[in-house]
Design a protein that fits this description.
142 residues, mainly beta, Immunoglobulin-like, four-stranded mixed β-sheet, 1 helix, 11% helix
Length: 142
Amino acid sequence: MKLVPAKHHREFFPMRSFFDEFVKDFYENEDREETIRSMALDILEHEETYEVLANLPGFKKKDISLSLDGNELTIEAKREEKKEEKKPNLYRCERYSGNYRRTVTLNDLCDVENISASYTDGVLSLIIPKIAPKPAKEIPIA
C-alpha cells in the first residue's frame, strides 16, 4: 500500500496561514529601519484619459510627492507624528512614522507632459490624458 502525505492548504486552515504570514512579516521587517508599504490604488480608463486614485488617508498634501522617471510614475507619502501629553503623574509620548510608495508603469499612449493631480479627503487623484497612437511606419520592399 502506498501512502500519500497530506498537504495542508490555506483554504482549510485560514487562521494558521494568517498567523504564518504575520510571523513571517514580523521577522522579515525586524532588521529594516524604515518599512515602506504600498497604498491601495485604482486605475480607471476613460475615453480620453486614465485616472489613478490612491488612498492616502491622514496625509497632508505637503507629505505627498509625485515623480516621473521615463514611463514610471511614483507616488510617495511620508508622515511622522509625535504626540506628547504631560500631566501630573502622567507622561505619554506616542510616535508614528509611515512611508508609502507605489510605482505605476505608464504606456506609450499617456501624455506625461499634461498629468494633473488633486488631493481631496484622503484620496489622491491623477488625470493622465491619452494621446493618439502613432500609425506604424510601412517599409517598402525593393
